Automatic annotation (TrEMBL):
The keyword Glycoprotein applies. Residues 317-354 are annotated as: Disordered. Residues 1-23 form the signal peptide. GO terms for molecular function: hydrolase activity, acting on ester bonds. The keyword Ribonucleoprotein does not apply. The lineage of its organism: Eukaryota, Viridiplantae, Streptophyta, Embryophyta, Tracheophyta. Coiled coil: none annotated. It comes from the Eukaryota. Residues 317-335 have a biased composition (Low complexity). InterPro entries: GDSL (IPR001087), SGNH_hydro_sf (IPR036514), SGNH_plant_lipase-like (IPR035669). Keywords: Glycoprotein, Hydrolase, Signal. This is GDSL esterase/lipase.
Amino acid sequence: ASSSLARLLLLVVLCPYAAVVSAGRYDPPGAPCYTRLFSLGDSVSDTGNLASVAPNDSVLAFPYGETFFHRPTGRFCDGRLIVDFIAEALKLPLVTPFLAGKTAADFRHGANFAVAGATALGQQFFRDMGLDLAIVPPFSLDVQLEWLERVLHLLGPTEKERQDIMSSSLFLLGEVGVNDYNHPLFQHRSFAGEIRPLVPKVIQKIENATKVLIGLGAKNIVVPGAIPLGCVPRYLTPFPSDDPGDYDAAGCVRWLNEFAEEHNRALRRMLGRVPRGPAVAVVYADYYAAVMEIRSPATPASTGSGRTRRWRRAVATAGRTTPACSSPATPPRSCARTRRSTSRGTACTSPRPRTGSWRGACWTGPTPRRLYCPRADV
C-alpha cells in the first residue's frame, strides 16, 4: 500500500502484541515483542563480523566507535547502527556477531550474520565476471543463511524447538544487494551492459532467502530497500559532473538514485508475490524515503529557515567541493575540514551536518537513530 495510513513506523507494524492478549497469553506492558533478533546483510548492519576475519581493517581503529561505545567495535560507524536501535527498542541486548560467538549462551538473544561488503550473489558469480575478489568477501546471503542454521541447531536440538525460535524472532534481511552493484561499478564495468542487468539476479537471491526464512518458520521479516546511492559521498566522488542538471535539489546524482529506485521497485514487487501464510508478516522497510527525508527538506534551498537553507546548501555542495576527509580508497568529497589524519584515512571535523555519512558509504551515529523506524509498507 502507498497511502500515508499504510506507512507505519516499523516497530508499530511489527510489535502489535505488546500489552495485549496474544495466542492466549497476556504480555504485560514492557514485555519484549520478540525473544530474539537475527540480522543478515552488509556493512549497514555488520556489528563485528568482518572485524573478526580482518583484524587489521581500519574499522578497528579510531575514529570508529568514538561517539557511543568510545572504542572501535567493528561497526562501520562512529556510533550505533540501525540494528542496534531496533534491538534497544525491542528491549533486547545488542545481538552478538556470529563470528564472535561460540556457545548457545552467546546467541540467546539472537545473532548478527551481516558482513561488510557482503553480497546477495555468491562470490563465484563475481569470479566468473572476472572481478578482483580482494574486496568481495565470501559471505553472501547463502553463507549467512548457513550460519543461521548452525545457530538454530545450537539453540534448539529438536525441530520443534527451532521452529519455536524462528516464530518468536524478528528477522532483518538486509539492506543487502547494493554491494552486488558496487563491486563491478567501482571496478569500472559497464553500467548498462553488466551492472543494471544484475537487478533481477539480486532480487531473485533476496527472494530465495526470504523463502528460506519462511520455510524455517520465520513469522516476522523486515526487508529494507537500497538507500539513495546518488546522495552518498562514495558515489559522488567517482561520478562527478559539470552539468547541474545531473544533480537533484539535494545535490544527489540523479542516475544513481534512479537506479536505487529501480532496485527498490523490483524488490517490492517481489515481496508482494512471495508465498506466505496468514501468520507471516514480510515488511518492506523504505530506507530510501527515510534517508531522503533527512537529506531533502521539503522547502527549496532558496526558501525556509536559515537553518534549512544552510543544510540544503551543505548537502548540495557535498559532492562537488574539494574538502579534505576521506578513506585511503576514497578521494575526499564529503566534508570541508579535517579533525585527524592517519595512515588509514582522514576523519572530518563535522561529518554529520554535511551528509550524515561515515566512511563515504555508511551513516554517522544520529542518522541510524532516525532510520531505525523507517517508513514501512505491509
